[in-house]
């Protein structure tokens, strides 16, 4: 079974635009029924992404390299984040999702709280961060509904707020101070897009009052850098 999982991941990784379930099964010379469960499991844990029945490599393999301390495979360098930090004076995060959790894959911050979350790869709720809202909004509708339906009743207010903002998130790729974070924090995030997909987010995090007061300025800065880097 392990060798088949490895073969599936390699097949998808080598494909230019992803593969269908049928194409994967054909390449493995295996019945569709014998690989569908494996593929569904790989999607559930973030090793594969699925959109319109096309499977592409997910973010989990990348995150494992980050956790292991190997150089991150990304075209956004730490120095680039440093420049955003220098202009804003606030915590800067580069975030992505793996399965149903958000992770900071890189950051620049003088705040030990955010440094701890980033450096220890602490899982965060997609519903409790501006970055998470953008990553969730980019999913297929059925996957959004499945995620929201799995939330505990204590998240009902956050679910409602997210749904009210969903159209705007999809259309703009920008999330401004949604007011869902803990400890009086908030953020501004912009989607980093590749081939029309949100692969990560660039965010500015700080005390809610500061984020709200400077929201227009912070959105402009994040959009400018995301565009300059070729991710808009």
From TrEMBL:
Q: Which UniProt keywords apply?
A: DNA-binding, Transcription, Transcription regulation
Name the source's superkingdom. Bacteria
Q: Name one Pfam family in it.
A: IclR_C
Q: Does the keyword Thylakoid apply?
A: no
For molecular function, the Gene Ontology terms on record are: DNA binding; DNA-binding transcription factor activity
Q: Which Gene3D superfamilies match?
A: 3.30.450.40, Winged helix-like DNA-binding domain superfamily/Winged helix DNA-binding domain
Write out the GO biological process terms. negative regulation of DNA-templated transcription
- Asked if the keyword NADP belongs to this entry, the reply reads no
Name under which the protein is recorded: IclR family transcriptional regulator
Question: Which positions fall inside the IclR-ED domain?
Answer: 53-232
Q: Where is the HTH iclR-type domain?
A: 1-59
């Amino acid at each position: 079974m392990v060798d088949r999982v490895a073969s599936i991941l390699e097949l998808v990784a080598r494909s230019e635009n992803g593969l269908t379930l049928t194409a994967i099964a054909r390449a493995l010379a295996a019945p569709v029924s014998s690989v569908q469960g494996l593929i569904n499991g790989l999607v559930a844990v973030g090793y594969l992404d699925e959109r319109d029945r096309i499977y592409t490599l997910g973010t989990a393999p990348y995150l494992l390299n980050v956790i292991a301390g190997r150089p991150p495979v990304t075209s956004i360098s730490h120095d680039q984040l440093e420049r955003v930090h220098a202009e804003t004076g606030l915590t800067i995060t580069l975030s992505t999702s793996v399965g149903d959790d958000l992770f900071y894959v890189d950051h620049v911050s003088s705040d030990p709280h955010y440094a701890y979350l980033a450096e220890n790869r602490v899982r965060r709720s997609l519903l409790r961060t501006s970055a998470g809202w953008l990553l969730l909004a980019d999913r297929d509708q059925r996957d959004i509904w499945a995620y929201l339906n799995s939330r505990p009743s204590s998240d009902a207010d956050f679910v409602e707020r997210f749904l009210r903002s969903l159209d705007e998130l999809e259309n703009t790729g920008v999330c401004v101070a949604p007011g869902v974070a803990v400890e009086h924090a908030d953020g501004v995030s912009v989607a980093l897009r590749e081939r029309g997909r949100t692969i990560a987010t660039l965010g500015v995090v700080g005390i809610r009052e500061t984020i709200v007061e400077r929201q227009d300025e912070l959105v402009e800065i994040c959009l400018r850098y995301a565009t300059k880097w070729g991710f808009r």
